[in-house]
Design goal:
There is one protein chain. By secondary structure, this protein is of the alpha+beta class. The chain contains 15 helices and 13 strands. The strands form three sheets. Strands 1, 2, 3, 4, 5 and 6 form a six-stranded mixed beta sheet that branches. The chain has a four-stranded antiparallel beta sheet with strand order 7-8-9-10, with no helix packed on it. Helix 2 (21-30) crosses helix 4 (53-65), helix 4 packs across helix 5 (71-80) and helix 8 packs parallel to helix 15 (397-420). The longest helix has 24 residues, at 397-420. The two termini are 21 Å apart. Mean pLDDT is 88; it is low at 5-17. This is Transposase DDE domain-containing protein.
Length: 433
Amino acid sequence: MAIIPQLSLFSWQDLEELGDLERLVLVLETVPDETLMAHLEAARGHGRNAYPVRAMWNSVLAGVVFQHPSIESLRRELARNAQLRMLCGFRNAAVPPASAYTRFLHRLMAEQDTVDGMFEQLVDDLAAVLPNFGQRLAMDSKGISSRAVRPAKNPTADGRRDVDADFGRKEYRGVHEDGTTWTKVVKWFGYKLHLVVDSTYELPVAWEVTKASVSDVTRAMPMLDHLHHRHGVLLSRAVLLTADRGYDDTKLIAACWDSYQIKPVIDIRNMWRDPDATRVLPGHSTVTYNYRGDVFCQDPVTGQVHTMSNGGFEVRRQRLKKRCPARFAGVSCRGQDTCPVVQGLRIPLQTDRRIFTPMDRASYQWKREYAHRTAVERVNSRLDVSFGLELHTIRGLKKMQLRCGLALIVMLAMALGRIRQRQPERMRRLVGS
């Protein structure tokens, strides 16, 4: 918890009247920054202390809370707002120069592991006060465009170019109301933020910043492994993991269930190259299935095809159950008495691990759970709008990692602070008092 040097000058009633400053106080009181402060103060030693470490750190957090797009914007606000200066801990009216912030941010980048530890501690603290925190997880990434000049063939170290960033590309597809398909391709130069969030509370539990070209699916298992090693209790609660088709990968889908007993609810791409829309289910000549997991049986008399009903999942046998549509859905079937699958059938997951998953892709439950994936999109939107990642002036991977880490720390600290104030309904309220 940060020490707020001038907090004694204000009563809580005063802070409520001050409006936005109340949010900053909430963050400063909640962020577990004792280790970071000790490291930074030890590094400073007995050197000049015109701008104390804690005051500088508090002001950096203030810049995140109040959505300042740059250090200069923060400095202007500090010069204008005496109450903010006092709350941060600056004893005199002088505002630290830009060079002081440059040096301080470089020290923070050198302490990235400690900053990451603050995020991990906040995740543990939230898991302790929210019993179902982590039950439903969602995974996605967001592109972060760089505002720097793209590197030339012979880049020079003039500070304008971003030599760490590269090009990313995402493709979106869908179907219009008239049945025609559409495709949208988004390209950008910059970075990519990979996130795992709790989709119930819309709060992050794991993150990573990479170059824009890094594939989403390659970072999925490392982040799950990190959660397993760092937040084993939280991951043990996880029941579902939702993700879009960018994470459609046999190894990931299988590992979710085999390694962590998490049911993957991951959209699927059509990877079939043959012209047939369906394939025969092994061992059942009258049963077929498509790439989306729908299973069909054939009326032995009329040859009419019916969609089989979902019968659940047998954990012990690792098999999906499918039921006769005539017996369980009221479908008319003249050959019911002679049908070989009138008693239903069981499909081993090993038939195709991508298509047949512990939660039946053809079930209504799968569709309901997949809708929770939008939680990570809302977290991404807050990072863009409320934390300034949509309009920023950051150059370099280390700076981007620090900026994203601070934004996510403030997001978690504000949520935890609201819970401790017994105001859980306001945990996602990032703006306004």
